[in-house]
């Protein structure tokens, strides 16, 4: 008997036991609670669900509802109309519950065979109520400046540019961020490290999103290429072999499309891999950088010189053109850590893109 047949048999035995029971209403109710715990435990142990499992849940909840209906109909002062309403509403609820569980199990199944889908669960930042109230204080023109997301009206209007922009940057780093933004910043950080080693870095994950096929960064130095995947996850989460398989597949495809290039694969993560995933990475020749934490004090401000008119412009990590701005050291461009460094070097803050196309 295979894994799923055994699970199905376990659930059907539970339901059969209940139906044959001749216990009192209270005893049946207690039995239902016990069976609910058993069924939930079985579901947790068999997370890749199939429609039969949802049907088992449906049958189980139907038994619960029938007990309520029986109680309403046969109590000392029967409530027949209420029992009929409960019966109809219970049917509707069970159908919705069954459809929901089937959908949940399908999602879990797809996530199991395509782990990059896990990253889709949270793609955007959601402003807090306090932040939304803060933005109401500004005019439409002022809202074009992203620093208004981090400053009060008084701070924004009264502070000199160096202090105002630095305060916004400091709060950007301290503010809680979505998983999507955390992942994006981690990719920027790893890319920055390779840029400092003289590599030309293509930020594939940032510009192509989930079309990157797991290739977050492609770093080139001469004829040497490094394909990188970045996972900035909680220290309590573990990278499993499915993530290594996915990365290996996309690296293999890249090598197949570029047979003349010398290509290396590296997997960066802020957490660690399971022992099996680690062994697979070794066999598949994927270099691992485990527990690789990000240093938020790294110089993240981009100081760029316009190729159109020579304007010296700096971009903060939340500015519109930040990711499109490439730093070329040979042209006198650089990264710096503070707004003061940028402005002391005669760079000004970037305008909104549509107002100054030269940027």
Characterize the quaternary organization of these chains.
single chain
Strand content: 5-15%
Q: So what's the overall shape? A: flat
Main sheet?
A: 5 strands, mixed
Roughly what percent helix? 40-55%
- Give a count of the beta strands, DSSP E runs of length 2 or more: 11
Helix and strand sequence: HHHHHHHHEHEEEHEEHEEEEHE
**Coarse structural class:** alpha/beta
State the end-to-end CA separation. 66 Å
Mind explaining what this structure looks like?
This protein is α/β, with parallel strands linked by helices and 359 residues long. The protein has four domains: 3-113, no CATH class; 129-174, no CATH class; 182-289, Trna Endonuclease, Chain: A, domain 1, CATH 3.40.1350; 301-355, no CATH class. Helices cover 50% and strands 13% of the residues. The chain has helices at 3-20, 25-45, 51-74, 80-113, 129-135, 153-158, 161-174, 179-196, 204-208, 241-257, 275-283, 339-344; strands at residues 200-202, 217-221, 224-231, 238-239, 262-269, 272-273, 286-289, 301-305, 312-315, 334-336, 348-349. A five-stranded mixed sheet has the order 1-2-3-5-7, sandwiched between helices. A four-stranded mixed sheet has the order 10-8-9-11. The chain has a two-stranded parallel sheet with strand order 4-6. β2 and β3 form a beta hairpin. α1 runs antiparallel to α2, α2 packs antiparallel against α3 and α3 packs antiparallel against α4 (80-113). The longest helix is centred in the first third of the chain and has 34 residues, at 80-113. The protein is flat, with a radius of gyration of 29 Å. The protein starts with a helix and ends in a 10-residue tail after the last strand. The model is unreliable at 45-49, 122-126 and 353-359 (pLDDT under 50).
